[in-house]
Design goal:
Radius of gyration of chain A: 8 Å
Largest sheet of chain B: 2 strands, antiparallel
Low-confidence stretches of chain B: none
Distance between the termini of chain B: 45 Å
Helix content of chain A: under 10%
Distance between the termini of chain A: 26 Å
Largest sheet of chain A: none
Shape of chain B: globular
Number of strands of chain A: 0
Structural class of chain A: little secondary structure
Strand content of chain A: under 5%
Oligomer: heterodimer
Number of helices of chain A: 0
Radius of gyration of chain B: 17 Å
Number of helices of chain B: 8
Strand order of the largest sheet of chain B: 1-2
Mean pLDDT of chain B: 97
Mean pLDDT of chain A: 72
Low-confidence stretches of chain A: none
């Protein structure tokens, strides 16, 4: 499975 | 972090604080859509669940906590502390017409079919339309207090600045997030009519009132 996406914005 | 992103975040923060202070100082939430504020609380709650799973930066964590805290404080002031001043009759937008399609869309179009990712997507889509009950309320009553228009301006400016941030990030980092961009464009477009009124009326010292 893929790396969990990181949302670095607010 | 670029200047557009930072000023966007600060504009967002300013909007949230302006609204809280307006309600607190006037001891009234007249003219404010409680439904929009509940939607924003839902937006922050579903988006910032990653507070539990990943650490990005101290700035990121602090801002998320402040946004969530302020959102719930606003809802509390409207529906509990100053409930008597809440103008429920004019706050008649049917939020299920937003939440249900947005929920469906976030299940259908997302980056990854996982619970956290779907909730993040839901929050992005929902944020883009969460202001509609507020704009609907203003169109119904035909007017808005000047301080309320400052709130709306900061809130619209925030997403417009994010658009520049995404252009910047695309050019300099090769980064883009299509879901955020499309929803951000929609969100910004919804404010265009209001921006026009803000510039032509409020900035010239007039109260925002719509023609009957």
């Amino acid at each position: 499975s893929q790396e969990p996406l990181r949302h670095d914005e607010l | 972090m670029n200047i557009f992103r930072l000023t966007g975040d600060l504009s967002h923060l300013a909007a949230i604080i302006i609204l809280l202070l307006k309600i607190w100082k006037s001891r009234s939430c007249a003219g404010i859509s409680g439904k929009s504020q509940i939607l924003f609380a839902l937006v922050f709650t579903t988006r910032y669940l990653d507070l539990f799973t990943s650490f990005i930066s101290l700035y990121n964590t602090c801002m998320k906590l402040i946004y969530i805290g302020c959102a719930y404080a606003t809802v509390y002031l409207i529906y509990a502390k100053f409930r008597a001043t809440y103008d429920g009759n004019h706050d008649s937008f049917r939020v299920e017409f937003l939440v249900v399609p947005v929920g469906g869309l976030s299940v259908l179009i997302n980056h990854d079919f996982s619970p956290l990712e779907i909730l993040w997507t839901f929050s992005i889509y929902l944020e883009s339309v969460a202001i509609l009950p507020q704009l609907f309320m203003i169109s119904k009553t035909g007017e808005a207090e000047t301080i309320t228009t400052h709130y709306l301006f900061c809130l619209g400016l925030y997403r417009a600045l994010y658009l520049f941030n995404w252009i910047w990030r695309f050019y300099f980092e090769g980064f883009f997030d299509m879901i955020a961009i499309v929803a951000g464009v929609v969100q910004t477009v919804l404010y265009c009519d209001f921006f026009y009124l803000y510039v032509t009326k409020v900035l010239k010292g007039k109260k925002l009132s719509l023609p009957a």
